[in-house]
Amino acid sequence: AQSVAQPEDQVNVAEGNPLTVKCTYSVSGNPYLFWYVQYPNRGLQFLLKYITGDNLVKGSYGFEAEFNKSQTSFHLKKPSALVSDSALYFCAFATGTASKLTFGTGTRLQVTL
Amino acid sequence: NAGVTQTPKFQVLKTGQSMTLQCAQDMNHNSMYWYRQDPGMGLRLIYYSASEGTTDKGEVPNGYNVSRLNKREFSLRLESAAPSQTSVYFCASSVALAGASSYEQYFGPGTRLTVT
Question: Which of the ends of chain B has fewer CB neighbours closer than 10 A, N or C?
Answer without folding.
Answer: N
